């Protein structure tokens, strides 16, 4: 049986692993020598830290297998990311170890702001599911 629940700090490693395992258009983006944690730092960690009331996980008998991470105010969320989340990461990650990471590093060092095309939608979310959890209605739930 799969349980849906609010994420807790102990879920961070699982959430980061799911983020990496689904980061390449739903496929695994992990590769030898890659700084895979950058995906989690950019697209999962800030939600767990800055919008925890909108961070949900699905857990089955094997552990956390999916997440839904959201914010109800994208502009304010990105402002909090810029102020609190990104500065230490920008200091830590100055150069890419692998050429595969250059795009992520560029994204890390670029401002996070709301795309003007999305101004009519105040919030956003990320839903990612490992293959073992797909096709069971968890994304909809």
TrEMBL record:
The keyword Repeat does not apply. Keywords: Transferase. InterPro entries: Acyl_CoA_acyltransferase (IPR016181), Glycosyl_Hydrolase_84 (IPR051822). It comes from the Bacteria. GO terms for molecular function: transferase activity. The keyword Transferase applies. PANTHER family: O-GLCNACASE, PROTEIN O-GLCNACASE. This is GNAT family N-acetyltransferase.
